[in-house]
Amino acid sequence: MLRVAVMVSGGGTNLQAIIDRVADGTITNTEIAVVISNNYGVKALERAEKAGIPGICVSPKDYSDREAFNQALLDTVNSYNVDLIVLAGFLVVIPEQMIDEYENRIINIHPSLIPAFCGTGYYGLKVHEAALERGVKVVGATVHFVDKGTDTGPIILQKAVEVQQGDTPKVLQQRVMEQAEWKLLPQAIDMIANGKVCVVDGKTVIQE
Ligand code: GRF
After folding, report:
1. Could you please report the per-residue DSSP string of 149-183?
2. Distance of CA 150 to CAs 27, 44, 165, 202, Å?
3. Which helix (H) or strand (E) holds 70?
4. 192 CA to middle of ligand 1, Å?
């Protein structure tokens, strides 16, 4: 059974997709051990509570400096003995020590087809604003392992989504979430839970 910690910052729609897919058996061999937020009072923590999953807030505001926060975040994750950390709309830089301790065991959902519209400054609505500004006709989402770069780890899954005439950033974000993010993240977790993903020379190898 894969024990998973899901890390969130806000709305938690990706978390909800994972909760729902575990409940309906789409994600197999997996249990969500804990939801960890860096913000108090967010909808993601309400979603965890409704699902009977322990929800914890580890906020930088509660610590004297970033180092103390990083240590508290790592200690909290470690206390749940998880196999996989899932960043589901988590907007905090992952401490290097966590990446070392959980090498190729942290995954992230990014709302673009990496390497497009990713890296520092590209998150949330900003990604879709940049895509519309550039005038691309296809966008999408990517699930990747987290390394010490920003959105640079080995890619696991990607899914394309069409841009439609008149799209606003909000409308495009919703379509990418519905058609790509909420499908890819559960799919990646199920693949990992069943030993279907490994990393060779910095790239993923997926067993069908
Ligand atoms: C969304 O922009 C999503 O694309 C990105 O994080 C944001 C919030 O996601 N991954 P969520 O609703 O909190 O899952």
Report:
1. SSS-SPEEEEEEEE--TT--HHHHHHHHIIIIIHH
2. 27, 23, 31, 15
3. helix 66-78
4. 21
110 flagged as catalytic: yes
Residue 127: predicted pLDDT: 98
Measure CA of the first residue to CA of the last residue in the chain; give whole Å.
Answer: 20
Q: Summarize pLDDT for 141-200 with one digit per residue, the tens.
A: 999 999 999 999 999 999 999 999 999 999 999 999 999 999 999 999 999 999 999 999
Taking the CA of residue 10 as reference, the ligand 1 atom at the shortest distance is 13
Q: Which two tokens stand for residue 40?
A: 């108090």
Distance from Cα 150 to the centre of ligand 1, integer Å: 16
CA dihedral 72, 76, 81, 82 (to 10 degrees): -100
Ligand 1 neighbour 151 (Cβ under 6 A): no
Residue 3: CB atoms within 10 A of its CB come to 15
Catalytic annotation, pick one of 14, 22, 102, 110: 110
Cβ atoms within 10 Å, residue 29: 13
CATH superfamily of 2-206: Formyl transferase, N-terminal domain (3.40.50.170)
If residue 12 lies in a helix (H) or strand (E), which one and from where to where?
none
H or E segment to which residue 107 belongs: strand 106-110
Q: What spacing in Å lies between the alpha carbon of 207 and ligand 1's midpoint?
A: 28
Pocket lining: 169 vs ligand 1, CB cutoff 6 Å: no
